Amino acid sequence: MATKSLTTTYLIRLSNANHDGVTQQINDRLVAFTTDNQLLIAARQTVVAARQAEDIAYKRLSGKDFASEDLKKEDGLEDNYMSTIRGILNGLLYLPETEPMYRKAQLAAQVFKDFDFSINDGFEAEARKILNMNQQWQAATDYTLAELGIAEWVSKAVTQANKVLQLVSIRVDNESAKVKGELANARKVTDAAIRQAYDVVNALSVLQPSESLNALITVLLSIEERAKLYYISGASGAGIDKPNNGGGDNGGGDTPTPTPDPTPDPNNGGGGNNGGSGGFDTGD
């Protein structure tokens, strides 16, 4: 019989990444244990279901794909208008340098370079660049947008930029909060399920002790000890020999409640590799 009972109080102190990894290890050990006890079978099935729900919530949060379809659509239109403007100006640059319109187009096109503009910029970064670029174009004295043939498209790009900023401030923040709440609740459900399974295991260790049950308890205790050492205590050895799926977060500190992940920065959620009409950065 094991000399120490299984506990779950340490789980609440783990970061999201480490909680996901440690509880998955517990899940795997419980599933692999051979037993005919119906109470334990039912308890571990509850753990499996809770773990699946937490894993989905964790991946949603770590992916930080908080963009609504509306936001992606408005950003895509914004990209189209800005690409059209750039195309028109670049087309005018094929004129002979002696043509007055060549110099006007060159000055207007320079604004793209001045702001290092790209449709792959983050949602908010791209939108704010467009508003600032419009101010510079409107203030120009050497050309007008009308004579360059881009006035209508600049106006529409500005309209799209304002729509994107509105959606960023409302939709993205709301979705972020919702997903964070989903993960927090999923963690609680997982902890409760594991606690219930541990209650059964602890009872069986007294009522029906066996070598296989003792071995299971020993492994589960080692998972707890390693989690406390590497993810909670802040020991100098943190970061080595980690449980699978532990993530790149060592937990750190004796935080009594789960450490919330940073609020997603809309500047990192635009087109291309940073978001927008493309993907999103991942992370915990």
Descriptive overview:
The chain is mainly alpha-helical and 284 residues long. It contains eight helices and no strands. It has helices spanning 16-32, 38-63, 69-92, 100-114, 123-139, 145-148, 151-207, 211-232. The longest helix has 57 residues, at 151-207. The chain is rod-shaped, with a radius of gyration of 28 Å. The chain starts with 15 loop residues before the first helix and ends in a 52-residue tail after the last helix. The model is unreliable at 235-284 (pLDDT under 50).
Short recap of the structure:
With 284 residues, the chain is mostly helical. Helices cover 64% and strands 0% of the residues.
Number of helices: 8
Secondary-structure-based class equals: mainly alpha
Low-confidence stretches: 235-284
Could you say which overall geometry the principal axes of the C-alpha atoms support?
A: rod-shaped
Oligomer status? single chain
Give me the count of strands: 0
String of helices and strands: HHHHHHHH
- The radius of gyration computed from the alpha-carbon positions, rounded to a whole number of angstroms, is 28 Å
